[in-house]
Prior knowledge:
The structure holds two protein chains of two kinds.
Chain A: H1 7-14, E1 19-30, E2 36-47, E3 52-56, H2 63-70, E4 78-85, E5 88-91, H3 97-107, E6 108-111, H4 123-128, H5 140-153, H6 166-179, E7 188-192, H7 200-217, E8 220-224, H8 228-232, E9 236-241, E10 244-248
Parallel strand pairs in A: 3-8, 3-9, 6-7, 7-8
Antiparallel strand pairs in A: 1-2, 1-4, 4-5, 9-10
Helix pairs in contact in A: 1-3, 5-6, 6-7
Chain B: H1 5-14, H2 16-50, E1 56-59, H3 64-72, H4 87-96, E2 100-112, E3 115-120, H5 122-125, E4 135-136, E5 144-147, E6 158-163, H6 166-171, E7 175-185, E8 197-200, H7 201-209, H8 211-214, E9 235-240, H9 243-253, E10 280-282, H10 284-337, H11 342-381, H12 393-409, H13 411-418, H14 422-427
Parallel strand pairs in B: 3-8, 5-7
Antiparallel strand pairs in B: 1-9, 1-10, 2-3, 2-6, 2-9, 4-7, 5-8, 6-7
Amino acid sequence: MAVLADAGQVENALKLAPVLVFEGVSLAYSVPNQRQISLLNKADWSLERGAQVALCGPSGCGKTSVLNLLAAIEKPQQGRIIWHDGSGQTEITALPTSQQEAWRRAALGLVFQQFHLFPQMTALQNVLLPTRFAAWQPTPQQQDRASALLDRVGVRPNADIRLLSRGEQQRVAVARALLGGAFGAPRVVLADEPTASLDTATAQIVATMLSELCREQGSTLIIATHDRDIAAMMDAVFDMADGKIIERSSHGGDSSP
Amino acid sequence: MMNPIPLAITELRRHLLGAVAIVMLIAVAVAFGIAVTSSERALRESSARAADRFDLIIGAPGSGTQLVLTTVYLQAAAIPLIAPDVLPRSLADLTADKGVAYAAPVAVGDSFGTAPIVGTTADFVIDGGRMKLTDGRNFANKSEAVLGASVDLKIGVTFQAAHGSAAEQLIDAHNHSFRFTVVGRLPKNGTAWDNAILVPIETIWGIHAGARLASRQSEALGPPWASDAINGVPAIVVRVKSPGDAYRLRGIYRGNVATSVNGKAGTDGTNSTNGTNDTMAIFPAEVLVELYALIGDMRKVMTTMSLATQGIVLLAVLLVMISALSVRQQTIAVLRAMGAPKRYIFAMIWLQGFMLIGLGAALGLGFGWVGSAALVKIFAADIGLAIIPTIGAEEFLMAATVLVAGSILAMIPTAILWRENIAQKLRN
C-alpha cells in the first residue's frame, strides 16, 4: 500500500491508469429521530480506466454518498477504496486530509446538479477558480486550456454567468470539471445528477458533451442519474440495491461481482 | 501559494447590499470616536496656539475667563476697565520692567462692519518684532490702521469706526467722526485676530475721552504715556522675557496692584505693589486648562460611548457573518469537494471580515475627519478660531484597534466552519 507524501507524488501516481476498487465498503448514516440508514453493506465494486458508467437508483439510495466516497469526502465505516495505478495502489480513505484535498484537485472533476457557479465571476474565471486553491494564479497553460474548453462547450470566456441559460451554465460547470489540475485533464469525473435541473433536450446536449469530452481526454466518467436516456449513453449502468452496487445487464438482469 | 482574494471579493460583491451596510455601520461607529478625539485635540491645540502671544494678561478684577475670552478671542462683552488711577502706574511700571518685552494696553469695543477695532500699540501689532506684516507697514500715526489677514479692506482705503460691536450696532448705531486709513496687513494666524482692525491705542483713548483728553495727547505713539493722556482699557497684554518674569509679574498684579511705593516703576519685582486689589493678572493657560478639563471630561464620556458602540457593531458584524455562513454552507462544501483546502476557506472567510472591517475603519477615519470639522466649526465659530482638525496617531490607533479586534473576531466564523461535515452539506 503506497502512502503518498505530497501532491506531486499523487500527480505522478495518477499519470498511470487508475482502476477503482471498492473492497467490502459499508456506509450508513443516522437521520434524526429515525433508525440508521444503511447505504452500502460490504459492497464490492470495481471500475476500469476510461470507463463511462451510470449509477442509478431511487432517491435516497446513496448515489451521492458513493460519489462522496470516491472523492474521499466521506469515509466508509468499513472497507477500503483503492485507486490502482501502474506503480501501486492508493487507499484514498487512508490519506491525510491535506493529501485528499491535493488528490481531489489533481485527479477529480466534479459536476453538480445545481452547477455551483459564482455569478459575479465570468465563465473563464469560474473555470479557473479551482486553480487558485493551490496557486496564486493559473498558469498560462491552464488559461489556454480553460479557454479551449469553454470554446469546446460553446460559451464565451468573458460571458456573464447571470445572463447564461441553465444549459449554458451547466456547460461552464462541465468545462470547470474537465480543467483538471496542474498536469492536465482529471483522471475521473464525478457528475451528480448533472442534467436533473435541465429540460430533456438540453440534458441530452450537456450529457453528450460531457461524455465526448471525457472520452477525448481519457477521463473516467461516473454519473449518478435518474435519467434512463442519460444512463443509456454510458458504457455500463450500475444500480444501488440492498446495500450493493450491481451492474445492470443489457437485458435488464444483474451482473453483480 | 493559494489565492483566496478573488473569491473573497466575488462573494462580497454577491452580497453587496449587506456588505455595504456592514461597512457603513463600522464606519459610523469608528467615525464617532475619531470625530470626538480629533475635534477635541484640534480645539485644544488651536485655542492654545491663539493664546501663544499672550504671556500674561492684566485686567480689572472680575472674571478671568471673560478677560481671556475678550482679549485672546476678542469676544464682545462688557468687562470692567482697569481703574483710571491704576492704569497709568501699571503701564509705567510694566514698561520699565526689565523682564517685560512689551506691555500693550488693549482696548476693544468699536468696530467696522463685522471687524472689531482694537486699540493697542505698534509693538503688539508686530508682537515685538516676532511677526512681519504681509503687506504695507505698521501704523505710525493716530489715523492709521493695520488689518487682520481676513478683513475685507484694501491698503489705502479710509474708513470710519463705529461705536460698539457689530451686534451692538444693531441696537444703537452711531459712528465716531474719526477716520482711519489702512496702511498694512497682518499674516493669517487662524485666530479671531485675523478679523480684527488694529489701531493706535491713543486714538481710541482720544475718541472715547473726547476733546479734553485729546488736547493733552502728543502726536507720538507708544509708551511712555503721560498719566493724564490715558483713558481706561480692559486689559494690558504683557510679553515677558522669561517664564520666571511671567510668574513674578503675575504675583505682583494678581489681585493687588495700584500705587508705587516710591512713585517710580520698579525693575526687580519688588516694586509698586501695596495690595489694593485693583487688578488681576492671569495666564491664559490657566483658563484654558479649566476649559480643557471640562472638554476632557466630555471627551471621556463620548469616547467611552464610542468604544461601546464600536464593540456592539463588531459583535453585530460577527453575528451577521455567522448567520450568513448557514446560507453559504453548501457553497463552501462544494469548494471543499473541488479540492479547496480548509485553510483556503478559512482565509477566504476571514479575508471577507477583514476587508469589511478594514474598509469600514478606513471610511470611519474619513467620516471622522468630516465630523470633526463639523464639530469644531460649531465650537470654534464663537471664538473666531480657524481650526483645521487633523487625523493623528491617536485616531489611526483607534481605527487600527477596531481592525485588529475585528480581525480576531472574524476568526470565530471560520473556526465554526472548520468543524463542518462537507458530505452532509453536499447531501443537503
